[in-house]
Each structure stands twice: as C-alpha cells, then as structure tokens.
Known about the structure:
This protein has 331 residues and is mostly helical. It folds into two domains: 5-65, no CATH class; 96-330, no CATH class. It is built from twelve helices and no strands. α5 packs antiparallel against α7 (163-187).
Amino acid sequence: MFASKTTEHLAFMSRQLAHLLASNEAEAALQRLADASPERYEKEIGYLRRLFTNTETPERALGPNPYRMLAKLMPAVPESKNDFFRGFVDYLRQSRVVFETYWAGVVGLTWYLAALSLVVIVITLIFGLSVVPSFEGMFAEHYEQLPALTQTVFKFGGSGFPLVGILLALIVALVVWFVAMFHRRIQQIEPLPRWPSWVPMIGRVAEYYNLGLFLNFCRLLMDCKLTPGQAVTLAAKASNQPDTLSIDSLHGETGDFSDLPILAELAIAEKLGNFRAEINHQCEEHIGKMSLILIQVRDQFSLVLKLLLYVFVGTLVVAMYLPIFKMGSVI
C-alpha cells in the first residue's frame, strides 16, 4: 500500500510508535522514538507528533499518506488517542495485505494492456502515414477509392487521423485514469466516490470498499468508548456513506438500506442489542468478501479489456489487408 521510501519510513515509525503506546503516554513514546531513531526519520516523527496534537498538515513529500483519515477521526476520541492509533495501524496492516495482493493484479494488468495498446497505436500511425497513401495513389490512378473500412480506420473523415488509434487511446486513457484514481485513494485509505456505482465492476468495488471503511472505522471508534450512535455517524461521514445512515436509520426510524445486506444485518443486530458483536464479526468477514470481489473484478476486467483489444486489432488487420485483396480487381 505504501509506494515510496518516505511512506515506508512512515509505516515503520508508526509500527514502532504503536508498540510504545502500549505502555507510554503519547509524548513520552514519541520522545523515545525520536531518541532511538536517526535524523533521516525526523520528518516522519514530526508528522506523527502533529497527529497527536491535532496540528497535522498535508505533507506531499510523504507520498500516499493513509494517516490523513486518522487525523480526521482522532479528534473525536481525545481521551483514547493511543488506543485509536494502535487500532488504526493494525487495520492498515491487514488492509495492506489484501490490496497489495489483489489490487496489484488489476494495476499490473492495466499497464500491460496499456503497453500493448501503445504498440497497436504506433503500428496504426505508421501504416496510416506511410502505407495507406501509397495504396490511395494506386487506387486513384484507376479511378477507384480505397475500401470503406480502410478509409474509416486510417483516414477518418478524410482528415488522415486513424480512427482505431484515436478510440483505443481514449479507452486506454479512461481505464488508466479510473484505475489510478482508485489506486491512489485506496493507498490513502480514503473513501471512493459514489458516482461510479452505476459502472459495471468498478461500482461494486467502490461500494464494498467504502462499506469496509465504514465497518472498520465504526469498530475502532466504538473500541475507544464512543456510543454506537456517535460511531455510526462519524464512520458514515468518513466512509462516504449515504447522509441518511445513522443509528436511527438502523433502528428503522429513518432510511431504508435493505439493498445493502450488511447494513440490513446491522439493523437487526442493533434492535437485538448485539450491535458491537456484529460489527466485529462483519469486519472479519469483510476481508474475505473484499478479496473475493477483487479477484472476480480482476478476472472480468481482464476479459473485457482483452476482448476490446482483440476487436481493435482484428479491425486493424482487416482494414490493412482489404486494399491488397481488392487490388487485383482494380488493376
């Protein structure tokens, strides 16, 4: 989940601090950490110190920083900052395993297909700029035109721009942007936007990822002695859940979440007085469910992109060979 040396340093410092907080106050633990660490960790220790004093400022030099979410939630538990920090670090460690194992496959597949697409685009440009004009001249000598598919693919609208290359470049750029945006937010443990919910595959990942944030944030807040009502409200806001999600909505007084099975189960558990136990259970179950969804989405994503690439390559090959096949009848 951490993608640079500075964020690896921050991860290491946070693990050491979590151990120290088990038997020390925050300031004493931070001072011990500073005394035992070389100067190259000074920036990371300073960042962690600001977290505990609520003076955290964004640090671009730290790279993808998952502690921004911690900084937003920590003021809600002023008396339990140590426990909240330790729980958050443990959650990061668990989520890192899941997403580095399964999401990395999606990222790797995207770059692999982007590289193949770049090769196709280069071939299209070379053929369209150097070969097609020769065929066009030969056909013009016999008062004939190039096949319609060849003109469409390599000279779209008579402009000379290869249609296949343009469409492929747009699709690849859109896919890379989606994956990069998702990857960045996942690295920072930030919720994904709700607007991709209508997009096949991507919407499912966003929904379950945000739901996992809600469950884990809610568990961490309740472990720090917040009431279920406070924990649900804060966790829902931090995980980009519907505005109507609250402890009252789980009671059935407002809102209807019957389309989300986990929230429906939490509503039943809340009525029975088993809300805390059910939250803990759902957090454990969600790791396996999220892993399975990422595997399924990765396989579906791979199939769709490969099919699109094959269609583009097939269209390109047919458009390249049509002038050769038609040349006999022209000459």
